[in-house]
Amino acid sequence: MKQLITNKLAEVEKENGIKILFSCESGSRGWGFPSPDSDYDVRFIYVRPYRYYLSVMERADDLNFAINGDLDMYGWDLRKVLQLTRKSNVTPFEWLQSPIIYRQEPGFKEELWALCQHYFGRRSNIHHYLGIAQGALAGIANGNEIAIKKLFYVLRPLLAARWCLEKQQIAPMTIGPLMTLLPAHLQEQVCRLITRKSTAAEGFIIQIDAELKTYIDQEFARIDEASKSLEKEPFGAEKLDEFFVNTITKYDH
Question: Within a 10 A sphere around the Cβ of 226, how many other Cβ atoms?
Fold first, then answer.
């Protein structure tokens, strides 16, 4: 599958006249809890020739493709990535931490990741993650029944929100480091659930253990309340502008 993805990226690059700087897996495979039927969620960051950006016209800043079998792929222009970074959007933060990388230009990921450290907004990151967790919690039926995929869509963002609150830094993308925030006995339970998910369909319904459900409810309420006193951080664009100009100049083709 990796070779198919690599070939597809080369095809996309050629057909669209772009330069792909970085491509990774985003989704359950990258997060560390795939199911047998999980899609391959391929994401990439690209640039166009320098003159493309010198226009008074609005220009497209993303590339979307129809899902093909179990391949789900889309990409963002570097300008869009940097605009979202200024807003402390967690998506670029997560892509750059993916353990599964399909393509990368030497040094690009490291330089952009270093830049991202200046744009971590604790309040906005916490609210983003709590919003995802809350949406997934709506999938609970009969008090404690939920698709195993949805349960991890609660757990990972909830723990990421806690990480942002307590450690005051960008949350890890993968579930492993986040699980260190759990009490030991709940870590063991979640490890068993990850193993179970690895052999079950994503829609497989489970019953949430009462203690785990209590932990989820209490942590959600605690983090939500704590985040209300946090101020929204304003970020300038100077560092991002410099990175943008340097990059599109370097890769002008």
Answer: 14
Beta strands in the chain (DSSP E): 19-25, 40-47, 62-64, 71-77, 101-104, 145-147, 205-207
184-197 and 210-227 are packed helices; what angle lies between their axes, rounded to 10 degrees?
110
How large is the average pLDDT for residues 232-236?
Answer: 91
Q: Ramachandran region of residue 69, left (φ > 0), alpha (ψ -120 to 50) or beta?
A: left
pTM of the model: 0.94
Residue 253 has pLDDT above 80, yes or no: no
Dihedral pair phi/psi, residue 230, rounded to 5°? -80, 140
What the block records as the tokens of 38 is: 């999980």
Instruction: Please name the amino acid found at residue 198.
Output: S
